């Protein structure tokens, strides 16, 4: 069986490759992805390896490609992802690729630089244009004395006030609240200033800096300057960052050179750009005209530059994915070649690799292809090597088994060739989950979700979402699918569908009371021994629907669910121990079978399987009308406890025994089970000691019996030398074996008890789930269903939405998660502790597919 | 008291087909072993789960305790009520009887 029950058989191989063929061969192996190379020069620094230059060149190419990709993304050009997988190019093509990328990068950088300069120019010109336009207004007002006349115009007043620099006054703390007369005074002052202030500067500043700027000017110049500002309505593009920023035009009037330097310093400090602004209106007009034409010229040039850039990027976008794949492949190949050894003649590279034995043929074919492609005449040599090292664990999974294998590997990768629990987990995991999640309705939701993911597998997988939660769900789609399916089945048996029952066959309990009895009693308990009330045979499929309505439902269900938890738990654990037998047989550990497996299975069967047996006896034998008298059924738990304590049950009207001779039989079982403990504890070490003694005896005898003198000396020499040295080792070895065996025995014996109890979580979670869904129905859905009339319909609609949300959110998602985790624990601890070592390490083949996927996911992050 | 033969045989047979007969006919291939294990385990777990539920109800020690409203509703809504006589199950439709009975008595003051 090559599949999944045990990991693949692996072998260590030595690979001799001609230097010129090495590249092509490794490339073929990378496409195949079945070879794990070992690092043959682990003490050589990464910078001193043979192909470090090539790796660096690849890094450089990758950097250029990332730069290109960034630019493409910035322009929002769609990158063509054909999904094709180009082969790794020949080493000589690397130079072409490098040249292409170099050219592209330089071109792009140049274009970007030009565009930035152009944009800066454009920005300056636009700002100048705005300055000329806005200041025109200021000057016009000053010349025509329009301020006074415009004062009456209420629509202009607003602007006027801000232009007057009221903000500045307020910031200066001089006028907190300007009354009308005061404002008039300010305006008058302004007019006065207009006339006597000779100098001014104009510029542009970021809008958010204006208040601080005003305050600073006011304080530094002691109120002797006058600031007017107007906002530029349209946002301007900052050429260095590409952000859209809002700016304002300002003009500052002042007098004297001293103030001028001061104002200029402040402007500089606030990163305001100053522009020359001629005083004469004619000059200004002329300048504005000039600016306009220059802006138009610039626009055309800028458009052409952008077009060019776009063309370059579109051309690059077509190939970029392809290039990425190529470069990454080259890099991976050189990286792998760095792990190889050069032989003495420098003609040939030596590699060591782990290879699945079944795939040696395919690997040799791939190597031959590689040699042919490189045109080398000498074929590569693949030699199997003997080694004492543990080979890696390689489980060949498909898309279905992958998720289950991941669950097992999360606990620990199986030791080499150990029994792999995942084939059994495929069914036992969803089943145990379903025992806790038994509800057909919730199971159906889960089944539909899982089924949708399975059906839409290909389109969903192609989307490659980077949402972690979605990826977890999608990776476990088959698990979810099976969990849903099994939950529907267990829900059917529990007869639970959104906490309601299906009455498929008609309840086997019937009402035969007359009306007066019903009416006079608040509640009535049906009598199971009455043939008019109970048909005396059980409902054929699952729970009788009457129990869902009963008030003593929990009492009945608890006893049933606790029992099935123990029954399935004990069977699950027994199954684990039996799988252990296969391990012992495969690894030919005869001692383990005799001193470990047999006492283990006896212990488990004699105590816990007997407990299960008691449950079945109770189910069959005890009824209300049996010969043992009604309500005489002994408690299984008490019987079991008494059995272990060797206590006879209390004799009353009812007999505490279920069958004749039970007491003696039980004592026998317990004594044998207890005897298994020393058997497990001492059996293996003692027999090992015995075997060793026997070997010694034989060796020593053999040495003295040898008649040849020289041969005798030779034979005695090692015989007397090695055992003396080895004796201490052996004793240490033995004490270690004793300790190990002690720990193992204690763990198993205590574990059997605690693990059996641990399976009660199946009952607990199932009870909690059923109760929670019942509470949700009674508290929410029922209140909607009891409303009447047309308003009731609307209320029901809202209530249903609420109920559905809670059902999906709490009962399916959260309860599902909790049941999932408990199932995981039952498998990892209770099941796998019986046979699974999990001390291997995974097989990590050199595969382009894995490398490319990893590279893609890191760049997307 | 006890089990009725039909459902026990039916479900044992059903899961027997899944767990014993189907694994024989699994197509040959690398996944044959996995599929067989899956079928056998599914059949065994599902059969045992059904069996436990069936056996737990074979000899009920307690009967369901029902509220009087529930009893009235059961008598009214669950139309197929099985009567057990002379060791044979006969299906008696007593819908009209019980429906009228409950309806009439409910409206009449007692």
UniProtKB/TrEMBL annotation, chain A:
It comes from the Eukaryota. GO terms for cellular component: plasma membrane; vacuolar proton-transporting V-type ATPase, V0 domain. The keyword Translocase does not apply. Residues 51-128 form a coiled coil. Keywords: Coiled coil, Hydrogen ion transport, Ion transport, Membrane, Transmembrane, Transmembrane helix, Transport. InterPro entries: V-ATPase_116kDa_su, V-type_ATPase_116kDa_su_euka. It is found in: Membrane. One of its GO terms (biological process) is vacuolar acidification. The chain crosses the membrane at residues 426-449, 469-494, 566-587, 593-617, 665-683, 789-814. One of its GO terms (molecular function) is ATPase binding. It is a multi-pass membrane protein. The keyword Nucleotide-binding does not apply. Essential component of the vacuolar proton pump (V-ATPase), a multimeric enzyme that catalyzes the translocation of protons across the membranes. Required for assembly and activity of the V-ATPase. Belongs to the V-ATPase 116 kDa subunit family. This is V-type proton ATPase subunit a.
UniProtKB/TrEMBL annotation, chain B:
The keyword Transferase does not apply. It is a multi-pass membrane protein. Its main location: membrane. GO terms for cellular component: endomembrane system; plasma membrane proton-transporting V-type ATPase complex; proton-transporting V-type ATPase, V0 domain. The chain crosses the membrane at residues 33-57, 78-99. It is found in: Endomembrane system. Belongs to the V-ATPase e1/e2 subunit family. This is V-type proton ATPase subunit e 2.
